[in-house]
Amino acid sequence: MENPLVEAVRKAGLTRAALSLRAGLSYAAVAHALRGYPKKPPQAMLKVLESLGWDAEELERRYVEWRSAYRDH
């Protein structure tokens, strides 16, 4: 099962650098979220993805579910 943020970023055609600039986040913060380190994805990242047509609430829900299944075990 893939991190839903990784899937969304890939399908949006964004690089980590481009996403960090658009979201106003450090490259490290974006990389950490894409690796599943934070318990919830950064809201700024979700806002960028939402502006590209993704449902932010659904992405957050799927991320938390994925992280619970993948990262915590």
From TrEMBL:
Gene3D superfamilies, A to Z: lambda repressor-like DNA-binding domains (1.10.260.40)
InterPro entries for the chain: Lambda_DNA-bd_dom_sf
Molecular function (Gene Ontology), one example: DNA binding
Name of the protein this chain belongs to: Helix-turn-helix protein
